[in-house]
Amino acid sequence: MNLIKIGYLRKAHGIQGEFKVVVEDKFIDDFLETEVVFLEIKGEKLPYFVEEARDGGMLLLKLEEVNTRSQAEQLGTKSMFMRREDIQLTDAEIALEDNKAVFARLLNYTLWEAELGVVGKIKEIVVFPQQELAKVVYNSQERLIPLRAEWIVREDRLLKKVIMNLPQGLLEL
C-alpha cells in the first residue's frame, strides 16, 4: 500500500478525543473527505477510521474509538498519512516541493495586532533567504511586518484573519 505523509497530529483538543492537526495545504481538501488516516506508531503505520474531520478556523480530527482526552493524549504527536488512492492530486503535484513561502497561506488575510486591533490586509508576502515579511498598509503607509511563528497568536482560516503579538513600536518604524 502506498502511503503519503500529509501532516501530523498536533495535540488533544477538548474532552471528547479530538485532535488539532496540521495538514499540508495541498492535502487539506482530501483530508477533509477521507475515511481513514494512518498514524506512525513505533515505526509502523496503523490505520485509524475517521469519525469526523473539519475545518472551523483550525483543522480538527475525531478518530473512531478515541473518545476521551486521555486517549487522545496517549496517541500524542504522530505523523499522519493517507492512502495514495484517497488523494486527488497527480503524482507530479504530490512530488512537487512547496517552493512557495512558508507563510504564503496568509496572503489576503487581515492582520490583527493582539492589543491594537486591525493592522491591515496582507497584500503580499515578501520572501528573503532568512525571513518572510507581510506587506500591509497601516495608517496610510506601507509596512513590512516580519512573519515569525512565535508571534502568531491565532489563525482563522474561515475569517481569513491572523492575530499576532508584535513587538512594541514595530508598527511605528
Question: How would you describe what is shown here?
Answer:
The protein has three helices and 13 strands, in the order E-E-H-E-E-E-H-E-H-E-E-E-E-E-E-E. The chain has about 170 residues and is mainly beta. It has two domains: about 5-95, RimM (Elongation Factor Tu (Ef-tu), domain 3, Beta Barrel); about 105-170, PRC-barrel domain (SH3 type barrels, Roll). A six-stranded antiparallel β-barrel has the order 1-2-5-4-3-6. Strands 8-7-13-12 form a four-stranded mixed β-sheet, with no helix packed on it. A three-stranded antiparallel β-sheet has the order 9-10-11, with no helix packed on it. The protein starts with a strand and ends in a 9-residue tail after the last strand. About 20% of the residues are buried.
Structural class: mainly beta
* Number of H- or I-type helical stretches: 3
Helix content range of the residues, please?
10-25%
Can you tell me the CATH superfamily of the largest domain? RimM
Radius of gyration: 18 Å
- Count of DSSP strands: 13
**Element string (H = helix, E = strand):** EEHEEEHEHEEEEEEE
**How is the main sheet built?**
6 strands, antiparallel, barrel
Q: Whole-number average pLDDT?
A: 89
What shape does the CA trace take?
elongated
Q: Could you tell me the strand content as a percent range?
A: over 45%
Cross-sheet strand order for the largest sheet: 1-2-5-4-3-6
CATH architectural type of the largest domain? Beta Barrel
CATH topology tier name of the largest domain: Elongation Factor Tu (Ef-tu), domain 3
Tell me, what is the CATH class of the largest domain?
Mainly Beta
